[in-house]
Amino acid sequence: MKHGIITAPQPEAVELGAEVLMRGGNAVDAAVACAFAQGVADNLMCGIAGFGFAHVFLPGKKIHTTYDFMSTAPAAVTAGMWEPLLEGETRDGFGFILKGRVNDIGYQSVAVPGNLKGYHSLHAAHGRLPWADVVAPAIRLAREGYTVTPYVRAYWTTPEKMGRVEIIDRIAYSKNARGLYFGDDGVPHQIGTKVRNPELADTLGGIAQDGDRSFYHGAVASRIDAEFRANGGHLSKADLEAYRVQERPPVFSTYRGLRLAVTPPPSSGYMMAKMLGILERFDLRALGHNSTAYIKLLAEVMKRAQIDKERYIGDPDFEPVPTAPFLDPAQHDADAAAIRRGERAVVPRLAPKAYESAETTQVSVMDVEGNVVSMTHTLGMQSGVITPGLGFMYNAAMAMFDPRPGRPMSLAPGKKRVSSMAPTILFDGDKPVLVTGAPGGSNIPMGILQTILNVVDFGMSIVEAVEAPRVSAMGNVIDVSHRIPGFQCDALRADGYAVARSAQSYLVARPHSIRVEGGRVTGSADPAAGGMALIV
Q: How confident is the model at residue 359, as a pLDDT?
């Protein structure tokens, strides 16, 4: 590799990130450029009005850090304001359904955006190319047009069927959204259509000139404030002015002699450490990959991690998150012993009505100098709101706050929502051997987990590891891909497990990963998203 490697779910964004590497940019430049382009080409998954995490390793500078640019609840919200509207909880326990869906679509569903501030902070600290040069590819893509891919078109039009607002209703919510996603015939754009977004190009042009200042402090912030005031939203210019990105050290643990580095709360990195800590106490190869016994073990480990996530993980700035349930080897021993005794965990749920959305995206980059970035960023869900003249859709992150007071994820002014994001780097000594992350809602840790197990325990190549069938147990049902044989599902059901076999061949997040082995660098993009890994 002459310049580096980049992998993400959107081919056009990967190409533009690769071009930045070829022009002398480092991994940070390429990741930020790719992220901006993802916000153009796949603008229901991410964008400047979303939120995310970045995991950064720069060996030449002796820097290993994480950036938290999660969305926060606007200052105008109050702790119990939505409790009377509560109708249920998602089946995987990472979202709440309210009467009128006020937390899921429209102006009240929007939390304070963090993505642009995150991209700018990351680049200002560690980028090499001028900021305008990093934003420029996305401006060109917005002006010249992105191509509607099969995956994007299917996402726009596939019925949701899980209790949330349908995607088709989100993209039809406002006149500006309809103008962006629908043709003159009133039908969503077909596969292969070239879609231009000159308003977003103009907005990005301003960002190229003044960084994040106008969006958080200037004219754009004022336009956002006026739009939300006029439509009963909570987001204000004061919220934007007060927003801060937080830089924190990674969380470290070990697995099979390798060093695991994950992002801290409010991400789900702790879940990764807990699951791998328990699984290290078992001989997975002896069980057999995706055997009935192996799937049962994964399910019990996943449920225990999910229970502790929901019990303990919140915004660490509001209350401390205990480390022992996730990182203490004695707890791993106790969990492993309980599983061996045949004890089955039960995840508490209000009402099994829906899944968390998988609407997130990922970029993994390594440059020729060994600099690494794994960044996961998203809108969460889409609010349907596009301010006239700005060209971007806002997040619907408020759906993830618990409307019941007194809980780790409870709604409160200025509080960050908890995320399933977990951009991860696995090291052999001080050398990264696996860089991974994934979109996929609550299933993100489960997809990353199985990618790691496939490489470390089963000796798969990175392509094999990402493409292998996956399973998930985020609640009291084991979800499996269609490539898990029916006789395995029958055996699990006979043993008392509820099993949901998907019609999809690729399920449980969409890992995008880079592997370094003996000096050879390879990458893989999950086939479900239609992305690619590109070495330049």
A: 63
